[in-house]
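TOKENISE THE FOLD
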Amino acid sequence: MTNNYKKKTKILIWYWGRLGGGQTYSYHIIKYLKKLSNKNKNLEIYLSVSKNSELYGDFNKFNLKSFNIKTYNNWFQLFISLFYIFKIKNNFLKFIKTNQIDVVYSPMYHIWNFLISKDFSQNNVKYLFTIHDAKLHPGENSLVSRLIYNFSIKTANAYLTLTKTVKSELLKKKFFANKKIFITRFGNIENIKNINNIQKPLERNKTKFLFFGRILEYKGINNLLIAFSKFNKDCPNSTLHIVGRGDVSKYSKLILENKNIYLVNNWISEKSFSNFFKTFNVCVLPYIEASQSGVIPLMFALRIPVIITPVGGLIEQVKNNYNGIICKDFSCNSLQNEMKRISMDNKLYNKLVRGAMFSSKDKTIWKKSAEQIFLLSKII
């Protein structure tokens, strides 16, 4: 527990999510905090993750003292878990107490957080929480989701955000006016296999475009489909692939109208990333609103430049005309123009690929993030 006279700071990294960017972010934070603890005897790292995680095997390789649990893989299992979540909670709090944990750090929200984090203060444990979104996006913001999310946030002692944009949005809210908020960036992705085998030569007017991520309305897929259909009239050999899980009923007509638009309405596992994405040239993020995106560093790691709309924290992640293109606005015409520009200009495309590759090799972001977490853990 917290003791001003104890030199060593014990941080437990806690994330029970199974899929997506949360586990990727957690993996890198764990990796670099462990590296920091190897050099700093005043830091000791513990871990608590889900055994259902896609990256559970990778988490185990860190050989940290851990409290790992089975969570769930579907809605039925989530319902069943309600009957034993309080047993997990008691065992988790016991693990924290036994190991004299000072700070519990949650890299990303999980639906069970609020059931447990409210008891940290009673055990004299500080709680550090990364806020990915200042508010939940459309499609994720049901009344129940908002209540649970907001309650989880308010149990923390200090906060981290991934962009300046999110931090500034939080500071507009009365609750966060006097809270400690640090910024830790989402760095490059280092755990993709066979990365050096990825090659994507660009044939003029034959660009293979990609949208990747959960299919939700705020991501602007409708605008992308319209923009591509217009672009495709000038470049009929190019293709667009919509890859991700979600409700596509709103877009089915636009997809079916164009034979060069393909849909993969499935989850793509992290282990298959390098093989699945190796033939794509450009990833388009046509978001209407956004805080930041884990897709961007993933694409850079895969040597794939991006086209983004000028929204939220996305513009903090991309250097215009270096590793990607930032559209002038959110319109279909702007998307269409940038898709055409990158398809017609091989020199620009090759420059962007090189920029994406160099961006993906920057290891300083994770190192600085780990240092920020350690610093904040000592002062909260």
